[in-house]
Amino acid sequence: MKKKDRHGPKKTSGITILPLSLPLLQLLRELKYPIRRTLSQRCRPQHRCRLVPTFSIMIDAKSCSRLDSSKDNGVLNVDEEGDEELVSLELFALQRMDKKKVAVPLVCHGHSRPVVDLFYSPITPDGFFLISASKDSSPMLRNGETGDWIGTFEGHKGAVWSCCLDTNALRAASGSADFTAKIWDALTGDELHCFEHKHIVRACAFSEDTNLLLTGGFEKILRIFDLNRPDAPPREVDNSPGSIRTVAWLHSDQTILSSCTDMGGVRLWDVRSGKIVQTLETKSPVTSAEVGQDGRYIITADGSSVKFWDANHFGLVKSYNMPCTVESASLEPKLGNKFIAGGEDMWIRLFDFHTGDEIGCNKGHHGPVHCVRFAPGGESYASGSEDGTIRIWQTGPAPQEEVDAFSAYGSTGKVKVMADEVAGKIEGFHITKEGKAEEKDEATDA
Question: Which ranges does the UniProt record give for the WD repeats (predicted)?
Answer without folding.
Answer: 153-194, 362-394
